[in-house]
Amino acid sequence: MVDQPGDGEYPEYWEADVVLRDGGTAHLRPIHPSDADAVQTFHTGQSQNSIYMRFFAFKSRLSAKELKRFTEVDYQDRVALVITIGGEIIGIGRYDRLDDPVEAEVAFNIADAHQGRGIGSILLEHLAAAAREKGIRRFSAEVLPENQKMLMVFSDAGYDVRRHFDDGVVSLEFNIDPTDKSRAVMESREHRAEARSIQELLAPSSVAVIGASRKWGSIGYQLLEHIIEGGFTGPVYAINPEALELAGMLSFGRLSEVPDAVRLAIVAVPQDEVTKVVDECAAAGVKGLVVATAGYAEAGEAGLARQRELVRQARANGMRVIGPASLGIVNTNPAVSLNASMAPSLPLRGGLGLFSQSAAIGVSLYAASSRRRLGISTFLSAGNRADVSGNDMMQFWEDDADTAAVGLYLESIGNPRKFSRLARRLALTKPVIVAKSGSMGLQLPPGHAVRTTQAPAGALDAMMRQAGVIPVETIEQLMDVAQVVSRQPLPAGPGIAVVSNSQALGKVVADSATAHGLAVEQTVTDVDLDAGMSVALPALRRALAEALNAESVHSVLVALLPARGLTVENIAGVLAECSTAAGKPVVAAFTGILDPSIYVEGMVAAEPPASLPLPCFSNPEAGVAALAAVVRYVQWVNRDQGLFVEPAGCDPEAARTMLDGLLHGVSGEQLVRLDQSTAAQLLGHYGIRLVPSEGFSTVDEAMEAAGRLGWPVALKTTDSTLRHRLDLGGVRLDIQDADSLHRNIREMQHVLEPYGSTTLEVQSMAPVGQACTFRAIEDALLGPVVSFGLAGDAVNLLDDWAHRVPPLSASDVHEFIRAPRAARKLFGYQGLPAVDVAALEDLAVRLTMLKDNHPEVALVEFNPVLAGASGLSILAADVRIANASKRTDTARRIMLG
Q1: What are the backbone dihedrals phi and psi of residue 80, each rounded to the nearest 5 degrees, phi first?
Q2: pLDDT tens for residues 398-407?
Q3: Which long-range contacts (CB under 8 A, 24 or more apart) does 246-252 make?
Q4: Which of 34, 421, 454, 746, CA to CA, is 20 to 30 A from 470?
């Protein structure tokens, strides 16, 4: 939780690094009285036309009174934000609250030299977020009609802008609450900017290696050598103050001595020299840094501080950072041909994009792809992932024509909500394969400075499955899947044919396919490959073509034992030819080959050479598992991706107003637990109704409450642990009259006295049903997490929960309720009737909306929820609220550090 500052106190948490439209970076922050000179410099540097557009008149300088007003704000009713590069102000945006306390007037001023970089739209997003935090709901502005650029900032933002023309001025007004359109606009701009940012790094026009060395084996020596031998198409500059010649070319002592512009700097200097190098790169107009130097966050708190300062220094001067402790980057496009990495040679060109974090994992990932002969489009090792992340790479890969599939090995994740959003969008067009550390989010690897999660086990995996990624556990499994999707068509469905020259092997493979959820449509085990090449290959071709021609067969796995006179390449040629002709994937498994010189793991070059390489395995089980993972991915792509239809009776604005009142005066990490009446009122704003209950202090009060609620009633303890435990005496049901109620009160208080839970309440009786439970939390890493299970031992002992992370599609909601292992009890079990699953889905949607819209709601738990044959009843709700965490994915663009 973040404690908000009081009026007049500088809101440091509003500061943010941002990516501009052209891929450059800048720093956004609230204005400060010390900015007076910088604001004057900014103003005097503007053209007469720009000054006139802002002030409706020309003024060569701002007066002392104007400077004081512009720079001394209260961060409440008057707010101003500035965007800077290298400490120089390049844009200012401000709002002033009007007489109507929910409306403010906004104005912007962008430096002439930086117009067209998207600065106005970024300022508008951040001003709107600050204003919403301070209770403002509408912006208004007055713009001269000839100021088309500023008019476009407002009209293109995605808000419903109302405008009218009066006295030569265009007046605009719009609600600043995020809308689907405004979020879409923000995300589209974010995508273009971040993709461009990475494009500048992976396809630079020129490269300098700072710390290049003639010492064989040193990092600087290898990086320079690999760039040159990789055939980089642009100029390469070696920077070393102690060498006149490196790698057969003239070197420079300092970056400032290079006669031409340098776009990418590879930094391989000792850690204590990096700060000076970054300053030199900033002065030279470098766009990005690949920092191979280690000794940062992995070196403890002092190293972490150095790492954060490195990123701050680079971003503030318009540069992105890959690293520190990066293995490097690779781009195999012939127009670039960049191997700025520790890999000894440029890899094969292909359609697989790869991302790793720590250098050790990067080495393993690169080695595995090379061993499998998988062609790479781009590769990036983020090292400590201090700046450039997997999210950035997904933005780039979405538009990259060279990349057909992507693989990421994640050891930590800094912005899971954004990852989910980007992965879901990318996965609709390109397979996204993700291997992750088993403890990711719970325990960070050295050098990774992100928040850890307190979300329930399985929530992160559920989020990834929702996003359509293909989850794997190891690098080898990542490569198994990658070789299936990188060069072949995707299977249209789960139907598979197994072709083999061994009946026993064919049966084993078919059984494995069934166990992995594939539908075995054919098993062909009479292929004779011992009759010689001229007979065996045509027989194999006929058998395979016949299997592929079947409409119900969507892929084929060919599992073969060694055959005399046939090479792996001969067989691969036939399989690849048939696969291409049918437009269906074919995977081969060559089992029992003992000769280590025969290559059967990875992409096997087919004969004739005109055929594409074929994905091959030495273990049929690995091939089956990879195919099954790809089939599940295709099923995800083909399902309904639309968000659920918002149910009637939801009023988020009323809930927001109520929460603002309840949290007034609450600070820090203080949690406020709502009583049942207040909780019921809040939940009612989302159409969630609780079975009514009333507390009491005396027997007479209990009688009156029962009369109001209507007999029969239930009697419960208010203790959240015992109130649904019939076996422990925490609840008594179906109390028919006053005498029975009196007796049960006395007996329950006696039974519960040892537990210290003698406070009771009366509740209306609900229809019988299957007891379920819902829970929603706000997690520091994942944001909102919603969970569902069947109440009792299923969740308490077996941890049989389903978890989802908003936003959810209609299909997500459908699967959510059916995901727990015990969910089969909802559909009729051992003679019991099926429950109203649609009512459970409706409640899941309403709870998800509430939690997604209001980070102030720290916890909601419904336990139990009785699901009957028609409708459901919520018997108890535990609702706790607190100051909102700063979610990592909001309606404003921000780079996380």
Answers
A1: -135, 135
A2: 999 999 999 9
A3: 246/212, 246/213, 246/214, 247/212, 251/212
A4: 454
Each residue of 795-817: pLDDT tens digit? 988 999 999 999 888 999 999 99
pLDDT at 201 over 50: yes
3-state SS, one letter per residue, for 195-207: HHHHHHHHCCCCE
- CB contact set of 263 (below 8 Å; sequence gap of 6+): 200, 204, 205, 206, 207, 286, 287, 288
User: What is the crossing angle of helices 533-549 and 568-582, to 10°?
Assistant: 30
Token pair for 130:
């600050």
Distances (CA, A) of 379 to 327, 347, 811: 10, 10, 33
Residue 637 three-state SS? helix
| Domains observed in the chain | 12-176 (3.40.630.30), 197-484 (3.40.50.261), 488-638 (3.40.50.261), 650-690+767-897 (3.30.470.20), 692-765 (3.30.1490.20)
DSSP category for residue 821: G
The kind and range of the H/E element at 193 are: helix 180-202
Q: Are the CB atoms for 506 and 498 separated by under 8 Å?
A: yes
Q: Strand order in 169-175's β-sheet?
A: 16-19, 25-30, 78-85, 88-97, 103-110, 138-143, 169-175, 162-166
* Strand-pair partners of 294: none
The token duo for 31 is 């204005």
Please report which residue ranges of 317-403 form alpha helices under DSSP H.
359-371, 390-399
Are 282 and 319 in contact by the 8 Å Cβ rule? The answer is yes
pLDDT value, residue 442: 45
pLDDT of 532 above 80: no
Integer CA distances (angstroms), 206 to 260, 266, 335, 580, in order: 9, 11, 13, 40
Residue 100, classified by CB atoms within 10 Å of its CB into exposed (0-12), middle (13-18) or buried (19+), is exposed
Measured CA to CA, the distance from residue 81 to residue 604 in angstroms comes to 58
What CA–CA distance (Å, rounded) separates 186 from 18?
13
pLDDT at position 451 is 58
Q: Which residue carries 């990418």 as its tokens?
A: 264
Give the contacts of 573 (CB within 8 A, at least 6 positions apart): 606, 607, 608, 611
Direct distance between the N- and C-terminal alpha carbons of the chain, in angstroms, rounded to an integer: 18
Annotate 227-289 with DSSP letters as a single string. HHHTT-SS-EEEE-TT-SEETTEEEESSGGG-SS---EEEE-S-GGGHHHHHHHHHHTT--EE
Mind listing the pLDDT tens digit for each residue in 40-62?
Answer: 999 999 999 999 888 888 899 99
466-484: per-residue pLDDT in tens? 999 999 999 999 999 999 9
Indicate the helix (H) or strand (E) that contains 545.
helix 533-549
Tell me the pLDDT of the chain averaged across its residues: 91
